[in-house]
Amino acid sequence: MDCTSAKAERRRVRSRHRVLAFGVLATLVIGTGGGTVRRDGGAVPAADAVLAATERAAAPLPYLDPGLPVGKRVDDLIARMSLDDKLGQMTQPERRYITPAEITAHRIGSVLSSGGSAPSPNTPRSWADMYDGLQRAALAGRLRVPLMYGVDAVHGHNNVVGATIFPHNIGLGAARDPELVRRIGGATAREMAATGVDWNFAPCVCVVRNDRWGRTYESFGEVPGLASAMTTMIDGLQGEKLGAGPASVLATAKHYLGDGATQGGDDRGDARISEERLREIHLPPFRAAVRRGVGSVMVSYSSWNGVKLHEHRYLVTDVLKGELGFTGFVVSDYNGIDQIDGAPGFTRDEVAKAVNAGIDMVMVPEEWKKFIRYLRAEVGEGDVPMARIDDANRRILTKKFELGLFENPMADRRHLGSVGGAGHRALARGAVARSQVLLKNSQDVLPFGPAHDKIFVAGRSADDIGRQSGGWTVTWQGKPGGITPGTTILEGIREVAGPGVEVGYGRDGKGIDDSYDAAIAVVGEDPYAEYHGDRTGGLGLDDADVRTIERLRAADVPVIVVLVSGRPMDVAQRLPGWDALVAAWLPGTEGGGVADVLFGRSAPTGRLPVTWMSDADQQPINQGDGKKPLFPFGYGLTYG
Ligand code: BGC
User: Fold this and answer.
1) Which of the four pLDDT bands, split at 50, 70 and 90, describes residue 270?
2) Which residue's CA is the closest to the ligand 1 atom numbered 6?
3) Pick from 386, 417, 448: which residue ends a domain?
4) Whether residues 30 and 158 fall in one domain
């Protein structure tokens, strides 16, 4: 037992003793019927009455007793809850659309920050203040049930300015290192815990089958084995078990099921595949996540053969909860229930369908009052059975108890120093280096060595934290520029090259001449997230990037292209003109890791987590489908 868990154990035992002591006194008093009238009918003397009242007030109710098993606490709490208490627990509004007073009044179970929704100023401390304020509001409710606060910390605690931003999942899939991913989960949990946030809508264990999909980079790769292996992220986030360890937050496996299988890579589209394929390719990572005890599962916006997952009782209840034995709770996606009937907004029927399908908590950012009203009416008319409401509450409350929220509801500010701290940044830099995939290296132009004392760097992504971090960074879509502290790839190159190497820089390639020993073009995609990143046309480089590379080539020096993108790009036609190609994916704030590989401080060991097309028209292209790729799944060179 480490020192933290020993402390936790001591705390548990101490409070158990306190509770037992209260329990004896409480039985003496409450055993008389809890009133001021004695069993013999006589009035209790005044002093006794005061004592009785004091003890009654002090006696913890069973569900507040940390010494009791979670199941008993849940039973006790549920027995005390009214229908409105229960409906509140199942409701998750967005922070911008609810006040603390409303949280208290409506017994709200959870609040979320959608991508980029942050307190002002956006600092770790003001996140903690915001969280504590909302938590106090929840605890002011009659039953003192704490809330859970959810965010998408999909590559570090990415809504928070100053947090460590790790590579997006596609890069971690390239790194092929489950233990590294577990440590990243642990670091993310610590940064989250510092700000109070106790629930992460991650990891995405989606299996991308078409790189046109705007969420390709949220996937660890195109085969189920990769996402299954990387469910170690859940261990890192939750700890050995929920509530144990220095920081533990609830993880979410998402998006259930088949989000990476949609036709045309259409985010929120339809996966037209057989049940056999669905089970073979898309279900295994969820099975792995459930085995690791993932606390929640988020349902996908997408459909399976024309039926929305948000109404899919067979997949949500029979397969996930039944067959896979998932005992956590299922959360809907943001306004996900609105899309069941295809029309804007949601109806009573959609509410009933979603809850009856097995969704336990509903993410209703704005119209949460309407949701509560509709669900109350559906329960009243018997369209949603009370047993379903109780089951949803049981699942949600179990996780709150396991997280230790009833005992430690407030932000753990001891971790504030870890947010964007040196240790986490070093971990991220190592992960960046591990995720680089060397795809071409003519005449061993890489790594740079003593023969390279004058290097030119160009490209829109060379000196830009926002572009190298991609979507889900400070804002939902992400954006170019100095959006959060970090080391750009150019800065990393300068640092690793050291004072003995002259590093020239021109964003668009201007300033290069043949006096340089080599040129690096850092180019790629603009940031995007979700359906904004869906691409129906070509997947080639932007014209500006092509022009930059051409300028470098015209100087007649070896040209190394570093591609900063969330997916493979259509480069086959241009590749013969480049001396080297490195897929850097979306590395996050620690650009030094890219430089470490370019200069041979770390040998490249990353391997393609997806098949690299020869032509955009080949999409979808995946291992084993008989198409001829530019680079096969698993490809990656290293230094000789
Ligand atoms: C996304 C989810 C995300 C949710 C909450 C949705 O738009 O599809 O992945 O967890 O928003 O931010």
Assistant:
1) very high
2) 334
3) 417
4) yes
Nearest-5° angle of CA 202, CA 203, CA 207? 135
Q: Residue 6 and residue 8: Cα distance in Å, rounded? A: 5
Which CATH number is 483's domain given? 3.40.50.1700
* Best residue among 113, 152, 473 to mutate for probing ligand 1, ranked by most atoms within 8 Å of CB: 152
pLDDT at 11: 35
Best residue among 95, 157, 296, 333 to mutate for probing ligand 1, ranked by most atoms within 8 Å of CB: 333
Is residue 177, in this structure, part of any structural domain at all? no
In a domain, 331, yes or no: yes
The CATH number linked to 142 is 3.20.20.300
- Give CA 104 to chain center in angstroms: 27
Q: For atom 7 of ligand 1, which residue has the closest CA?
A: 334
Which pLDDT does position 244 carry in this prediction? 86
Encode pLDDT of 437-474 as tens digits.
Answer: 999 999 999 999 999 999 999 999 999 999 999 999 99
381, 111 contact by CB (below 8 A): no
For residue 57, name the pLDDT band (cuts at 50, 70, 90): low
Percent of the chain residues topping a pLDDT of 90:
90
Compute the distance from residue 343 Cα to the ligand 1 centre, in Å.
19
What's the domain count of the chain? Answer: 2
Of 200, 285, 280, 194, the residue nearest 236 (C-alpha): 200
Whether 583 and 519 share a structural domain = yes
- d(C-alpha 384, C-alpha 376), whole Å: 9
pLDDT in tens, 352-369: 999 999 999 999 999 999
User: pLDDT by residue (tens digit) across 152-206?
Assistant: 999 999 999 999 999 999 999 999 999 999 999 999 999 999 999 999 999 999 9
> Which structural domain, as residue segments, surrounds residue 51?
25-169+185-202+237-252+292-417
Counting residues of the chain whose pLDDT is more than 70, the rounded percentage is 91
Shared-domain flag, residues 483 and 595: yes
Residue 76, judged by CB atoms within 10 A of its CB (0-12, 13-18, 19+), counts as: middle
Same structural domain, 243 and 391: yes
Q: What's the 530 CA to ligand 1 centre distance in angstroms?
A: 8
What pairs with residue 487 in β-bridges? 590
Clarify whether residues 342 and 486 are in a common domain: no
> Which residues, judged by CB distance below 6 Å to any ligand atom, belong to the binding site of ligand 1?
114-115, 152, 201, 254, 333-334, 530
Determine the distance separating the centroid of ligand 1 and the alpha carbon of 152, expressed in angstroms.
7
The reply to whether 68 and 133 lie within a common domain is yes
Say whether the peptide bond before residue 568 is cis (omega within 30 degrees of 0). no
Side chain identity at residue 473, one-letter code: T
Q: In what order do the strands lie in the sheet with 454-458?
A: 437-441, 580-583, 559-564, 518-524, 454-458, 502-506
Q: Which residue has the least CA distance to atom 4 on ligand 1? A: 334
Q: Distance from the CA of 447 to the center of ligand 1, in angstroms?
A: 40
Please tell me whether residues 483 and 344 are part of one structural domain: no
Distance from the alpha carbon of residue 389 to the mean position of ligand 1, in angstroms = 24
In the chain, count H helices and then E strands: 21, 17
Q: What tens digit of pLDDT does each residue of 27-44 get?
A: 222 222 222 222 222 333
- Ligand 1 atom closest to the Cα of residue 115 is 12
Instruction: Assign 640 a pLDDT band (cuts: 50, 70, 90).
Output: confident
Q: Is residue 569 part of a domain?
A: yes
377 and 480 part of one domain: no
Just list the catalytic residues. Answer: 333, 530
Confidence (pTM): 0.92
503 within domain boundaries:
yes
